[in-house]
Amino acid sequence: MGQRKAPKDGDRKVGRRALLIGGAAAAAGSAVRARDELARLWWRTPGVEKPREEGEVDFAGARWVAASDANWRRADRPDDFGIDMVIVHVTQGSFDSAVKAFQDPGHKAATHYIVRQDGHVTQMIRELDVAYHAGNRDYNERSVGIEHEGFVDRPQDLTDEMYEASARLTARICARYDIPVDREHIIGHVEVPGTDHTDPGPHWDWDKYMRLVRQARTAPA
Ligand SMILES: [Zn+2]
Question: What is the distance in A from the centroid of ligand 1 to the CA of 187?
């Protein structure tokens, strides 16, 4: 990862907050407690970057494979940009070719997740960050993008395992950010204003997918 401005800004804000909290608690006579308090609280402050760990995923069971940082922008969602949308894509290629493309700094696009035909989920960009996948800045900033392995003109590529795994993923995203489970908020790439992309294509079964998302949303996590 390259040098970025955001962490520096974050450090400065933490510094200010450390002074504030430190001062108040020192007056109350417990500098040690102030440090503990600070460790718990600083990341809750809007505009302060959350701690990140290498390889951490947002969806239990997902495998982490980092995308090239040329294909996304560091952010602090949902504090800087609210997330109110999931955008569904189909890769138009194999899983491996999609991973390779998202690792390529020249590709200029990537989604947060790729769901394989066998239901395996790979995360390549944190939900905190803005992935370049919708071809529309506003939609990129407010959405999580999910690729599905296959071709839009091959209905047999859209397997049950893939629908089910993707629906569980989308249901968890909707739960995390309080996104309504409906077709206003769960859309296809083709529905993004200004796009020339057609995915997920005519064979994507929206009725089935939305039913599965609703089921997964109401099932115990
Ligand atoms: Zn797409």
Answer: 11
